[in-house]
């Protein structure tokens, strides 16, 4: 084939275009790529590869493209396989050869790797704020429910009394760990800038990569171009964070389903945020919690999907890496749907005080307090444990609670209220600790560190 024959190369089939295009994911990423391309063009101008006038013309066209994207009026063509080609054609249509020249010194490989890092950074901010709102809802509900004491459980068996607020704040703690994790992932995503790595060997241009990195918010250019274009660890970290958020949402959902069940009735489902039966008019179902357990499966599966995708990708860039965009977006869709409903559900959820008092009379929940009291009177704990275990058996035979057996022979009264207030050490269920936790949560939420 001669140079004259190049124009006769057969076009790609529509089927191939459909198979290789990644436009659905790129529609979400395009605004971030525009920021990267704009910074690169400015870098080219500083290196005297574009004049200031040419640079401004290209950036003006990028601004136009961004506005069209925001209003969903940008024209996408299935035969142009990705956002890079779309944006280059857009600039070329408006600026002629300037659009053809601006790709100099870089590759789609370093361009997408940089774009993805900006996208992950922004996603960390987005979900940090969603979690912040959710933790605020849990904290508010904890404060509202502070007088209510319930049986604390292990293995779903009644153990010791705790404030219901203590349990809600336990869930808040998990989500606050997620917030911290997102801060760390954002920092990792913005630690190095792949732009300038070109296809994989590094750019040949004398361009100030440090200045471009500073403009985009990165700490520094990349340390190894071969690694930079193929590194997706920062995305896997985001999928890890999503999986943990989903895990925590699912565990909260499990508690909600249990608390709302007919035998327990510790909470009453908010009518606006629960569903009924098509045939049984007495039913109210915790579908938000149940469907969240289902959504969490998809989010956790996305984490596994990401690892499975990357495990066989050779070092440097490889085509299958584009699939990770869709994996992240699908996980985000499920997560967004969960956060759309949960803060309002928690806000309107009602705790049934009458059921709480009834539950406190089941399961001998003061047995540990009696064993502790015996220990403080000089009986070794294991002996005290055995004595109280015998009292529990006797109480079961008599159809009463273990404290009833204790009170028959003792002047000292052990009460549920005293039991919770004795747990004053750091992290315990005493009211003083809960009040401190409420204050701490609100302070940390107000900081909004990212």
Q: Would you kindly provide a written description of the structure presented here, covering whatever features stand out?
A:
This protein has 450 residues and is mainly alpha-helical. The protein folds into 3 domains: 94 residues, Fumarase C, Chain B, domain 1 (Orthogonal Bundle); 224 residues, Fumarase C, Chain A, domain 2 (Up-down Bundle); 71 residues, Fumarase/aspartase (C-terminal domain) (Ribonucleotide Reductase Protein R1, domain 1). Helix content is 64%, strand content 4%. It contains 18 helices and 4 strands. The strands form 2 sheets. It has a two-stranded antiparallel sheet with strand order 1-2. The chain has a two-stranded antiparallel ribbon with strand order 3-4. Helix 2 crosses helix 8, helix 6 runs antiparallel to helix 7 and helix 6 packs parallel to helix 12. The chain is elongated and about 95 Å long. The N terminus is likely disordered.
The outline comes out as elongated
Kindly report the name of the CATH homologous superfamily of the largest domain. Fumarase/aspartase (Central domain)
CATH architecture tag of the largest domain: Up-down Bundle
CATH third-tier fold name of the largest domain: Fumarase C, Chain A, domain 2
Q: Secondary-structure element order, as H and E?
A: HHHHHHEEHHHHEHHEHHHHHH
How is the biggest beta sheet arranged? Answer: 2 strands, antiparallel
Low-confidence region ranges: 1-6
The order of strands across the largest sheet is: 1-2
Q: What amount of the residues lies in strands?
A: under 5%
Number of helices, counting only DSSP H or I runs of 4 residues or more: 18
| Overall pLDDT score | 93
Quaternary: single chain
């Amino acid at each position: 084939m001669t140079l004259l024959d190049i124009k006769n190369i057969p076009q790609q089939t529509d089927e191939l275009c459909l198979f290789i295009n990644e436009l659905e994911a790129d529609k979400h990423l395009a605004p971030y790529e525009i920021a990267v391309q704009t910074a690169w063009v400015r870098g080219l101008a500083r290196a005297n590869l574009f004049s200031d006038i040419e640079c401004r013309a290209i950036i003006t066209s990028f601004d136009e493209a961004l506005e069209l994207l925001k209003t969903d009026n940008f024209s996408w063509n299935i035969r142009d396989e990705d956002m890079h080609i779309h944006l280059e054609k857009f600039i070329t249509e408006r600026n002629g050869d300037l659009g053809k020249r601006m790709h100099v010194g870089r590759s789609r490989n370093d361009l997408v790797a940089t774009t993805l890092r900006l996208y992950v950074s922004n996603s960390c901010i987005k979900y940090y704020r969603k979690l912040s709102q959710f933790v605020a809802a849990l904290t508010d509900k904890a404060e509202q429910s502070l007088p209510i004491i319930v049986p604390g459980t292990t293995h779903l068996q009644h153990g010791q009394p705790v404030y219901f607020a203590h349990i809600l704040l336990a869930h808040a703690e998990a989500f606050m760990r997620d917030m911290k994790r997102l801060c760390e992932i954002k920092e990792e995503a913005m630690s190095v800038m792949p732009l300038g790595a070109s296809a994989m060997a590094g750019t040949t241009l004398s361009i100030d990569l440090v200045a471009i990195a500073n403009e985009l918010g990165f700490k520094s250019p990349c340390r190894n171009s071969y690694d930079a274009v193929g590194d997706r660890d920062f995305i896997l970290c985001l999928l890890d964070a999503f999986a943990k958020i989903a895990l925590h949402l699912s565990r909260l959902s499990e508690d909600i389903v249990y608390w709302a069940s007919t035998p327990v009735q510790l909470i009453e489902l908010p009518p606006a945020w629960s569903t009924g039966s098509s045939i049984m008019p007495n039913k109210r179902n915790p579908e938000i919690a149940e469907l969240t357990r289902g959504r969490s499966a998809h989010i956790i599966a996305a984490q596994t999907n990401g690892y499975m995708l990357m495990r066989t990708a050779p070092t440097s860039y490889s085509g299958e890496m584009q699939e990770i965009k869709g994996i992240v977006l699908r996980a985000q869709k499920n997560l967004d749907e969960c956060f759309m409903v949960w803060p309002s559900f928690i806000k309107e959820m009602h705790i049934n005080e009458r059921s709480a008092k009834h539950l406190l009379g089941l399961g001998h929940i003061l047995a540990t307090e009696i064993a502790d009291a015996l220990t403080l009177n000089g009986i070794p704990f294991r002996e005290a444990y055995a004595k109280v275990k015998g009292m529990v058996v006797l109480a079961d035979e008599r159809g009463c609670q273990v404290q009833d057996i204790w009170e028959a022979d003792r002047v000292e009264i052990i009460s549920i209220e005293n039991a919770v207030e004795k747990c004053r050490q750091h992290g315990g269920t005493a009211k003083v600790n809960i009040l401190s936790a409420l204050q701490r949560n609100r302070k940390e939420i107000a900081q909004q560190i990212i």
